[in-house]
Amino acid sequence: MSHATDLHDADLPGLASIAAQQLDARGRRIIDELASMLPAEAIITDPGAMGAYQQDRAVDPNAGMPVAVVLPLTTEHVQVAVQWAAERKVPVVPRGAGTGLSGGATAITGGIVLSTERMRSITVDPVTRTAVVQPGLLNVEVKAAAAAEGLWYPPDPASYEICTIGGNAATNAGGLCCVKYGVTSDYILGMEVVMADGRVVRIGGPRLKDVAGLSMLKLFVGSEGTLGIITELTLRLLPPAPPERTVVGWFSSSREAAAAILDIASSIRPSMLEYMDATSINAVEDVLEMGLHRHASALVVARSDDQSPSGAEIATMLNAFHRHGAFDAFEVADRQEGERFANARRIAIPAVERMGTLLLEDVGVSIPRLAELTLGVEKIAKSRDVVIAFIAHAGDGNTHPLIVFNPDDDDMKERAYLAYGEVMDLAIQLGGTITGEHGVGRLKQPWLVDQIGEDLLEISHNVKKALDPAGILNPGTIFAASGDATNAGKGRP
């Protein structure tokens, strides 16, 4: 039996009921009160306009309708809204650009959505190689501001052009280059957070080494808005990225491709090592028409920014491709051509999305078990008679099975949901994780206890209760809303 049933902070129905009762009892007055405390441009109460804020890209079918959407411009605006919500026990769902893929920004009926999209300032200090950033700035904009000062912000989610830096911090996002350069948490030195009671705290700062007190940064990064709302980040920047060389390997089987990936990852540290299966290759070729091999079972795109004259890493990768049966393997002609292949991998999700509605996963395993996961997902797709496109940040074992279905076909939808759960079960059986970078959100929380165990889940709940005793911050995300977390909602995201 899970401990989730004992924890009032996870009582999502109770919170929604309280908020709804308050709204019924006091009508518009309660919302007018909040509106009077904020600038007119910082709040939306029109139901038509609020519809766009009900869910993220995961399209959670259980999304509710908020009573208001708050669009703060400053930390003080966030503080006002959270204090108001805390006094009335109104749920608060933090949100960035809404590009999340696990339902972590799903609106709650009777609650408010707090979107940080308008908090967009940035200051870059080239001397300390740091940037102080508000959470609404897009990842690509952070990169551009750093580049203007001759610096580089490495984390590069495939959605870097549309996702916010605050959302990246909330889910500890990764990306294509993180196999060598690390994920978002590796570049966060400090943050400002509005806590559940409205207090504002600063954690860390521009110092590269700082061990005073408990390590709170890692606690808040990846917490998906359940412990506090991040209103400012201090980021570590690097010197400009070295020039890269790109190699491509085409394979007739996923097993051969996985073997080549393991060979490369155990020999060198490439700056990119990505995988695409036949379904995603053909979906991308439909969009780009760049001459991808439609008959291939797998494509591996790898990069090296090794600056040694010998170029030994390129030879290592090409040798691995040939040694494991690639029917075509080569170094691309120039950086422009290399970027075309990297872009092919980046657009895989929207390309596959043209085939139908997606259930997106980001399960991960250790690299030696990548072949087992790949082949296992192929078996699940066959047994459930659904299409599952498979792409991966293969160099660190973080994979993205994309389950395609028609939402108007009830039988297909049921099979897709069952396949979704079976993929996560498989990852756990292989000693892996239900999420490498997208977060647990709402869709994956029934499987969390299977991965981390009841004791650690109870400890996690205790941390949540300590920081958010009323349970108003993103209730239902990460932690089960109610019932037994070992069974609640399994097979039905």
Q: What radius of gyration results from the CA coordinates?
A: 23 Å
How much of the sequence lies in strands comes to 15-25%
Tell me the structural class: alpha+beta
Number of helices: 17
Organism: Pseudarthrobacter siccitolerans
Cofactor: FAD
Domain FAD-binding PCMH-type: 62-240
Protein name: Glycolate oxidase
Features:
disordered N terminus, five-stranded antiparallel β-sheet, Glycolate oxidase, seven-stranded antiparallel β-sheet, globular, alpha+beta, 493 residues, flavoprotein
Structure summarized in a few sentences:
This protein is α+β, with helices and mostly antiparallel strands and 493 residues long.
Structure, explained:
The protein has 17 helices and 16 strands. By secondary structure, it is an alpha+beta fold. A seven-stranded antiparallel beta sheet has the order 13-10-12-11-15-16-14, sandwiched between helices. A five-stranded antiparallel beta sheet has the order 5-6-9-7-8. The longest helix has 20 residues. It is globular and about 70 Å long. The protein starts with 11 loop residues before the first helix and ends in a 26-residue tail after the last helix.
